[in-house]
Design a protein that fits this description.
By secondary structure, the protein is mainly alpha-helical. 68% of the residues lie in helices and 6% in strands. The strands form two sheets. The chain has a two-stranded antiparallel ribbon with strand order 1-2. The protein has a two-stranded antiparallel ribbon with strand order 3-4.
Length: 348
């Protein structure tokens, strides 16, 4: 048995430690000191501040940025992008003269790009508002700002860039008037917070926004095609604005927790859940009866609309709070069914 003394020198502190260990040696044990160069390298590595490694931000790929843009607009794809583009398409095809289906369909990609880009402008403006960030933490924590995918400053820069891009796109493909009107509505809703100040103003702004998107879609689909929407078609778009005005509070049933945190005034929060539900049921029943008669719609499709409306109204009568999200999705299906009515009128 032999006792070995091991002397260890720490490069960073210079402290010498002596350890004694008894072990059986079969050959001489030699402990060599670290080369001078290695010591200097070790000293330089340990002397770096701990924040040095975390000061670099990870590289963000193109796919990362595209995913971020999608998350900004994801909630409105089913609410606005698909329904309003479809409404514009049905109106341009079925409510215009002369009808030029091939020319109208050829402009569908332009229309989708226009609607989505204006949605992105709205959402980058809306989601950077302090009150909206509070609401998103409660209702939609996966959005880019609450999930820390993008900073507030980057989101505001994106808003200004997309606003300019949307204007330039409208100059090129049409819909400039509707684009300017949407920008004005964004200021009223987001910057002046009129959408949070009262239930009536909230529904009115929603109805104006939905309708302006539809008018913009029609304008782009018919731009340069030689066809013009009839007076009946434009009146139909205004009637649909009234539908949104009187039934759009269906979304507020789902968002009550976030609206309460934001301090927003909605019908369910002001008058209670039951009043909120019946404020949707009554006008829905009236529009389900009246809308097919406006277009002299065939009986079969009238029954389809009635069936979808009946499902939504039944769910609202029951008042299943856990199912409000699904109820709102079904309400969107009912809205789309309304949008399709001109294609199913008698004589088409």
């Amino acid at each position: 048995m032999a006792d070995i003394e091991i002397i260890v020198t720490s490069p960073s502190s210079g402290i010498r430690a002596i350890a004694t260990q008894s072990r059986r040696l079969s050959v001489p044990t030699i402990i060599k000191p670290l080369p001078r160069r290695t010591r200097q390298q070790s000293l330089s590595q340990t002397s770096k501040p701990s924040s040095w490694a975390t000061s670099k931000t990870p590289q963000r790929s193109l796919l990362y940025h595209l995913h971020t843009l999608l998350l900004f607009t994801f909630s409105d794809i089913k609410n606005i992008l698909i329904p309003q583009t479809l409404l514009g398409l049905v109106t341009a095809l079925c409510c215009s003269h002369p009808s030029t289906p091939s020319a109208v369909l050829g402009r569908l990609p332009h229309t989708i790009a226009w609607v989505w880009l204006h949605l992105l402008v709205f959402n980058t403006s809306n989601q950077t508002q302090p009150s909206s960030q509070i609401e998103d933490l409660q209702n939609k924590p996966w959005r880019p700002l609450p999930s820390k995918r993008i900073s507030h400053g980057e989101a505001r820069a994106l808003f200004y860039a997309t606003s300019a891009l949307a204007t330039m796109l409208s100059v090129g493909i049409g819909g400039l008037r509707e684009s300017a009107l949407l920008m004005g509505l964004y200021v009223l809703n987001n910057d002046l917070s009129l959408g949070d100040s009262g239930a009536v103003s909230r529904n009115a702004l929603n109805a104006a926004g939905y309708t302006t998107f539809a008018f913009g879609a029609v304008a782009i689909l018919t731009h340069g095609t030689g066809c013009a929407v009839t007076q009946q078609g434009y009146l139909w778009l205004l009637l649909l604005a009234a539908v949104i005005l009187t039934t759009g509070q269906c979304q507020d049933l789902e968002d009550q927790d976030g609206d309460r945190a934001k301090g927003r005034s909605t019908i369910p929060l002001l008058f209670g859940d039951e009043v909120g539900r019946w404020s949707v049921i009554v006008p829905m029943a009236g529009w389900t009866f009246f809308a097919p008669r406006y277009w002299d719609c065939n009986f079969q499709y009238s029954m389809v609309l009635l069936a979808i409306g009946a499902v939504v109204m039944k769910r609202l009568v029951i008042g299943d709070k856990e199912g409000y999200k699904k109820t709102f999705r079904l309400w969107n299906c009912w809205i789309i069914a309304l949008y399709m009515l001109p294609a199913f009128r008698n004589g088409m």
